[in-house]
Amino acid sequence: MRTKHLQPPLPRAERRIRVLHDDVTVDCFRWLRDQENPEVRKYLEAENSYADQATAHLSELKAEFIAEIDGRRPCEENAPRFLVGPFEYFQRSESGLPHPVWWRRPITGGMDELVLDPNAIPGSETFYHLGVLEPSDDGRYVAFSFDLIGDESYELRVRDMENGRDVWRGSRRVIRVVWAADGHTLFFERERTGPRLRDQIVRLDVEAGASEVVFEENNERLQARVRRSNSGAWLFLDVLKTYDFSVYVQKGAAEVWCIPADEPRGKWRRIVRRELGHEIYAEHWGDRFLFRVDDAGPYWRLVCAPIDEPSPSCWEEVVPHRAGVTIEEVHVLEQHLVVLEREGLRPRLVSRDRTGRVEATIVPDEPSCTVRVGHSAGGCFSVPRHPFRSSKLTYSISSFVTPDTVVEHDLADGRSAVLYQARIPGYDAAQYAATVVVAEAEDGMQVPISLVARRDRSSPGPVLLNVYGCYGTPTWPSFFAWPSSMTARLSLLDRGVAFGIVHVRGGGELGRPWYEAAARARKRISHTDLIAAAEGLVEQGVASRDSIIIEGKSAGGGTVLATAFSRPDLFRAVLAEVPLADILDTELDFTMPYALTETAEYGDPRIADEYRYLRSYDPYYNLSADRPLPPTYIDTALHDGQVLYYQPARYVAQRRACAADHDAELVFRVRMVGGHSGASHGLGVAEEAAFRMAWALDQLRRSSS
């Protein structure tokens, strides 16, 4: 960064003293929370101006990256489709339009029919993100939701496909939706804000245009979710813990209710009581309910029980609990039970027939990858689907080196066929190698790192390490999804940089014990695991010392900021995207999104011991003039609904105030359009990735000069 003649902006300070548990903290930048204050906008714009000037010398490199990223856009022919009732639904890109258009076609053949053109929604030219696209069983209605700001407050509409008109529109902050079997009753989840967050389940009769709340969960540490069984015969209402994502897709519930899908106005029956004290995921198969339950241990087991007698006294074991083997998902076809398991980092799909006999075990030829069962519309809350009355299991595989690939495996005859594989122009998978490297943590635990690099890369060399390590959320390599984003990362790999995901404790990659080992009063283990991973890569000759960059997003951004404070000597630079940079204040201010639920992850600062532990690593309140930090890139979004813009903004202002040169090596960018996930389409998507990579590569080149 060429900053010799540049002066970083520094907002004015307003000292605010707080005393809690006999500890004094001083907050000088709380006033940045007032988005309506013109001085706030002026400061954010000044930071953007400084970032542009300080990185002006990277313009050519950034342009190279943008061109390379655009050149890797996947060819979209024969993209995967999903089936609902008599139709198959698919997207098609239209020349000159920013968003693909949704169409459908009768399975028996016929003309394509327009379902949804996002380009026709006013405002979508600036920002658009799909929430759900869920057709009714007969295809008469399609429910869809979208976000036009970036704050993840999705608006729900229902379209009558007979005339193409939206017959219902209303609730914002809608999450998931599910149709009943009658074809005109829709259930949806609505997050209500106020003094406290609470989730509601709403029943909507589309034909009558009438809606009513059928369930409300007032405990902010719990959330209500509604879904339909794979068989389509039952609706389940789950009451879930908000903070545990150790099994990400099919979260276990503290309480489960159900009704027959063809009786949407019937009485909900509670089949799992929260007093039981376990987490359970329910499914339906034939004359029984299946329960994935943690009563025998944290890696789950699978049991079944008669529909009329689902109590624990009637449970029969189907798959036992096995230490180190996590049962992540349960999927049901009419004659087949399919379980997605993971042992270590490697997943496998195991199918059983109705007698319990294992029919097939499918193990991807990847050391670490993402596996998904079924298809969905791809929206933020869309539900994956697969045919129920079939012996054909459809699943997808994606990894660092394998673009998304959809496979159909016939469980009846054991044959597999590739239905679709994303094709990337100019991409040759043989040039790259993915592996898993293990580093030893300070307590002797083995921390895995999913790593990818060019086969001709010289070792040791520069490495970019991504980390999350919070809420038990597992982070797997994939080709398109964050954090892999290989269509962009390949530009770094082709310049000799290796990329890795560090599976630190606090995440859920190795099951719930992996998460619980670094929560609350053990949270700093996530940081020390990251340090151990970086040092381990140096010791094993993979990484050069002073050539390691760490990167994290959201809560992972808080992880890298806290880790860099612990070992500023170890890292060449830090990339923190929309970071949770003021953890302590987030826990203490219950007007902020999800503040109460965050205490389950980081601890409750109203408790003295937990406050002191949090205080020891909080990124914001540990900044000081005598502890210089590595060059750091930070960004935020003005309309972010998860990590509010002023959380990283206050951190940046405090860092500038602590440094004699106002921390000239700190770059802060504020996105005025979009939210937590960045731009939704167009040049902005490639530009954001290119800017970060150009900045990172510049830091690495400076370290070697």
Mind explaining what this structure looks like?
The protein has 705 residues and is an alpha+beta fold. Among the domains are: 16-71 and 427-704, Rossmann fold, CATH 3.40.50.1820; 334-423, no CATH class. The protein is globular, with a radius of gyration of 25 Å.
Fraction of residues in β-strands:
25-35%
- What general outline do the C-alpha atoms trace? globular
Reading off the top of the CATH hierarchy, the class of the domain at 16-71 and 427-704 is best stated as Alpha Beta
Q: Strand order across the biggest sheet? A: 31-32-34-33-35-36-37-38
**CATH homologous superfamily heading of the domain at 16-71 and 427-704:** Alpha/Beta hydrolase fold, catalytic domain
Oligomer: single chain
CATH topology annotation of the domain at 16-71 and 427-704? Rossmann fold
Largest sheet: 8 strands, mixed
* DSSP, total strands: 38
DSSP summary: helix tally: 11
Structural class: alpha+beta
The percent of residues in helical segments reads 10-25%
Detail the poorly predicted runs: none
Kindly provide the radius of gyration, computed on alpha-carbon positions and rounded to a whole number of angstroms.
25 Å
CATH architecture of the domain at 16-71 and 427-704: 3-Layer(aba) Sandwich
Distance between the termini: 13 Å
- Mean pLDDT across the residues is 94
